[in-house]
């Protein structure tokens, strides 16, 4: 499955502990990545600077649902479920 246009849920909901260009301490959960463009696409999607953790996340129907709001809910719940 390809990423749905105008979504960006995976660039907002999950926390990222590894450094991101411009975000050396990673990204907290429910925080918009600085590379998420106004059209909800990733500005560094094809860049070698894109973190491996971001590149390893693959779009799926279970995660992405049919609407970005549902994807945000799913990913937020997943984030809460995986907290120590």
TrEMBL record:
Pfam families: CxxCxxCC (PF03692). InterPro entries: Puta_zinc/iron-chelating_dom, UPF0153_domain. It comes from the Bacteria. This is Zinc/iron-chelating domain-containing protein.
